[in-house]
């Protein structure tokens, strides 16, 4: 059913009180997580997609994993680039972009690296990619500063092409329905053999000619991009009141991102949580007057922001 006829998923009184507050708000933050892109077909970290071939996805998102097995880590990220390129922004991505056009002091802090908020034409100056992007690549050599933004080459090198199986008819039907293109093997499935890739197969830095290129994302144990930290500290640091923070599709367990909820609250912000799981409340809990809208962000966000 189109959104016009679809029954409301938000309790009317909550919707009314939220929209009254939203309309009166000027300084608004949103903290986005993987749940926002779930309806676009991209797996979340803790959901089924959180285990990539028996590897906990977060165990691959570290400099140590890249050091130990750059081929495996690149196949994980190349797969996510491939899936994100095939995915489309959903109504929630567009609704947040629309709000940013209406409210110049609304800033979105996204933990997502899937590129869907930029593709929904979210005003760039009001969108902070706090954990980087799958589509930025940079040199992994400590002394080299090479960074390439907006690299959408898929695969980024031939060796990272998704293996195909022309012979197996099931590849076309079963797997295509799940996401991979016909004949593509579902390399997220541990039963599908991965090619052994080594240094020579992997993308090299065109500048220093010695380092491997790596995904331009923030791994665990790494600092968030300085420019973004400064922007956020500038926004939060003004000691000016913050009216509202929306916490959308995130388990809010990763720091410093999750910490922004408490900082916003300390600046007077009311908190609105949009999450499929009623138990996923940020560490600081819910206060009287806060909102919890349970359900699919792709359905709820457009509804509460309209
Ligand atoms: C830092 C990019 C320090 C990569 C990511 C020990 C050693 C080192 C560091 C630490 C340590 N202990 C703690 C830390 C800090 C660490 C941390 O917080 N760890 C956690 C696990 C405790 N943080 C860091 O390491 C950060 N850096 O601390 O640097 C430092 C200081 C000075 C100098 C040098 C260093 C960097 C963290 C960034 C890591 N990179 N991503 C990549 O994507 O591959 S994190 C990644 O995981 C995401 O970006 C996101 O942040 C997180 C996943 O969380 P979610 O997005 O919330 O996804 P999740 O699956 O968990 O939840 C989905 C939610 O959606 C659920 O609530 C679900 O119910 C809901 N949902 C599902 N479907 C829907 C839905 N909701 C609505 N609608 C639906 N349809």
TrEMBL record:
Q: Where does Zn(2+) bind?
A: 139, 144, 205, 208
In what residue span(s) does the Deacetylase sirtuin-type domain sit? Answer: 8-306
A GO molecular function assigned to this protein is:
protein-malonyllysine demalonylase activity
Stored SUPFAM superfamilies: DHS-like NAD/FAD-binding domain
- Outline the segment boundaries, as ranges, of region: Disordered: 162-181
**Active site: which residues?**
131
Swiss-Prot/TrEMBL keywords: Metal-binding, NAD, Transferase, Zinc
GO CC terms on record? nucleus
- PANTHER family (alphabetical): NAD-DEPENDENT PROTEIN DEACYLASE SIRTUIN-5, MITOCHONDRIAL-RELATED (PTHR11085)
Report the family membership. Answer: Belongs to the sirtuin family. Class I subfamily.
Q: What is this protein called?
A: DHS-like NAD/FAD-binding domain-containing protein
Give the species this sequence originates from: Cucurbitaria berberidis CBS 394.84
